[in-house]
Design goal:
CATH architecture: Alpha-Beta Complex
Number of helices: 9
Number of strands: 7
CATH class: Alpha Beta
Helix content: 25-40%
Number of domains: 1
CATH superfamily: Spore Coat Polysaccharide Biosynthesis Protein SpsA, Chain A
Strand order of the largest sheet: 3-2-1-4-6-5-7
Order of helices and strands: EHEHEHEHEHHEHHEH
Strand content: 5-15%
């Protein structure tokens, strides 16, 4: 805990047997209270390794429902465990768990409700091996979203995030896609509900063992980002009702 705030780390996993133990070994358990792993019907030994290394809360989907669907299970379970701070950490070792202290202290000390680990601040993305086409589309999409959504984020696409439970209880994340665009929809919901987002510089590693979406899926994700940005603009500026922004009550 930090300041009596219960911290829960959630690991949305799919075929992570080669990187899960490395990721778990760096989690700072001097502040982290619980770890949840949700295995989205992996074909490898992800769940077995999770049990062997001591993860208490393991949920295995009977069928693959997608990255966004995996996160929904993660957050629902974290709230069920009465988490005060929830950290999304990918078990593919792309993001270092060593930043958990910094991210969680910002929330525990009531400075921010949401903190993102940014690969773009500094030189972490390309230095860590991000493919050039992904870096290019990251920058283009981020500029597009900042203009339409009136924000100044360095990126909207990081999978390393910490939330106050207040935020998760407020935004209707269950309305979101079960695919990769879920992440982007969450940020749109957070901004729509006027929560300010902090970013900290985050080094990254693109290992060949790590899971990643291919070029085709990246294009589909990019189109989803454009759609989300337009939905935000229509809902915020034109007051048009959009499903992903409904039922938002502070």
């Amino acid at each position: 805990m930090i300041g009596k705030r219960k911290i829960v780390v959630v690991l949305p996993a799919f075929n992570a047997e080669n990187t899960l133990e490395m990721t778990y070994s760096e989690i700072p358990f001097d502040v982290v209270d619980e770890v949840i792993l949700v295995d989205d019907n992996s074909s490898d030994q992800t769940a077995g390794i999770a049990k062997r290394i001591g993860i208490k809360h393991i949920i295995k989907h009977e069928k693959n429902i997608g990255y966004g669907g995996n996160q929904k299970t993660c957050y629902n379970k974290a709230l069920e465990l009465n988490a005060d701070i929830v950290v999304l950490l990918h078990p593919d070792y792309q993001y270092t768990p060593k930043l958990l202290h910094s991210m969680c202290y910002l929330i525990a000390n009531d400075v921010y409700k949401v903190v993102l680990g940014s690969r773009i601040l500094g030189k972490g993305a390309l230095k860590g091996g991000m493919p050039y086409y992904k870096y290019f589309f990251n920058r283009v999409l981020t500029l597009f979203q900042n203009i339409l959504m009136g924000q100044k984020l360095s990126e909207y696409h990081s999978g390393y995030r910490a939330f106050s439970s207040q935020v998760l209880k407020c935004i209707p994340y269950m309305n979101n896609s079960d695919d990769f665009v879920f992440d982007n929809q969450m940020i749109a919901q957070i901004c729509y509900n006027d929560y300010e987002i902090a970013e900290i510089t985050c080094p990254t590693k693109y290992l060949k063992e790590a899971s990643s979406i291919n070029f085709k899926r990246s294009i589909i994700y990019g189109l989803g980002v454009v759609k989300t940005s337009l939905q935000y603009f229509f809902a915020r500026k034109l007051k048009i009702k959009v499903k992903i922004f409904r039922l938002m009550n502070k």
